[in-house]
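Q: My labmate handed me this sequence with no annotations at all. I'd like to see what the chain might look like in three dimensions before we decide whether it's worth expressing. Could you predict it?
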Amino acid sequence: MPQQLNKYPVSGAGLGLRRGLIDKLMADPPAEVDFMEVAPENWIRVGGKLGRKLRFFTERYPFLLHGLSLSIGAPSPLNEDLLRDIRSFMEEHGIDFYSEHLSYCGDNGQLYDLMPIPFTEEAALYVAERIRRAQDILGRRMAVENVSYYTPTDTSLSEIEFTNAVLEEADCDLLLDINNIVVNSINHKYDAREFMLAMPADRIKYFHLAGHYVEAEDLRIDTHGAAVDTQSWALLADAYAHFGPVPTLLERDFNFPPIEDLLDEIRQIKALQGAATDSSDIAGSSHG
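A: Here is what I predict for the chain of 288 residues:
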């Protein structure tokens, strides 16, 4: 039986650790950053100088893992060897929490993109069974992340219905990506706040926040290569007002700005978390 975690595996505001940022962050480890996250596939069995650099950070910050290639919705067999490697990596570095994308990225091969799973009851049951197996191998609960997608393959269920069905059937947790909600709401013409409010508060473990590319007024591309946009900041504030100051990780995968610009976004996350905490304290005292 997977072990239970506390409400959140981390607290505050985090930053995704990317190789393009490592040397600058090592030179002056930022106190503003409360935790970090890496993709295990990029670091498993990496030794030498680069491995020591990772250890520099795992000894200084709480870490989370966010997988890229488990391909939880693929028709091919579940990659149990990868899961065992991830479990060993977590034990090696003292990391307690792992998440993956609610998608797939290949069938007996690797695509460098995340493909949408059909929104059907059959697919929800299939994916949930694979998540339960993954949790058994990991020996702990895992989370799945709502993903951005551009062409749905089957809409027998809504994205909300499908996501909730998987979470309930698998009895797993949720990594809620705020930017992906914004991107999908524009591309598929639905209400971002309505989607956010329909997610189960008791399963949310942390948020992702990132920037995207504006291809056209009605088309956004999820790139993680730009600053966070105003709509995502607004939805994040709404999410804190509804769920409380959930731990939030800033993702930036390329087009890296000066470190100070990333830290400004971290500070903005913290300011919004603080405002949500203050509001809930005021509301609590007024009912005391």
